[in-house]
Structures are given as structure tokens and as C-alpha cells.
Design goal:
Elements: H1 3-10, H2 13-45, H3 52-70
Length: 82
């Protein structure tokens, strides 16, 4: 008998059921990881690409935020962002 079997046999019926349920949970979790990988790949392929204009707006906003962080007393104009 292995050490795990000895410990398992020392448990009462309710605790043995809990251990069994936990093992099932771990096994199902492992199976789901494999299934989710292919599902994840499919989802990634459906993601739309950002347009250059979108990226430019984000970069411009980032510059304004960085300026504000380094110099919080200066307020920037929202009209330059969009």
C-alpha cells in the first residue's frame, strides 16, 4: 500500500468522498485546459486589428498623460486628443 492509500483509508466516509471529489475536480480541470487551448486559438484569430488612426489617437493620449504625470500642474486640452 502506498502512503496515500494508507492516509485515505484512515479517513471517514465523508472525508473519503471529499478527497474523491477533489481528485475528480483536478482531473476535469486538466481536461478543460487542453480543450480551451484550441478554443482560445480560435478566439484569438477572430480579434480585429487596430487601424492606424486608432493607434495614433492612443499614442497621442499617452503623450498627454505622460506630460500630465510628470507635470501635474499643467492641464492639457481634450480637443487635441480627438
Amino acid at each position: 500500500m502506498t502512503n496515500i492509500q494508507i492516509k485515505y483509508n484512515l479517513l471517514d466516509a465523508a472525508s473519503q468522498k471529499e478527497v474523491s471529489d477533489f481528485i475528480d475536480f483536478l482531473l476535469n480541470k486538466k481536461k478543460k485546459k487542453v480543450k480551451n487551448l484550441s478554443s482560445y486559438k480560435k478566439k484569438i484569430l477572430k480579434v480585429s486589428a487596430w487601424a492606424e488612426e486608432d493607434i495614433k489617437r492612443i499614442e497621442e493620449a499617452q503623450k498627454h498623460i505622460n506630460n500630465w504625470i510628470h507635470s501635474p500642474t499643467q492641464l492639457f486640452s481634450y480637443s487635441t486628443i480627438g
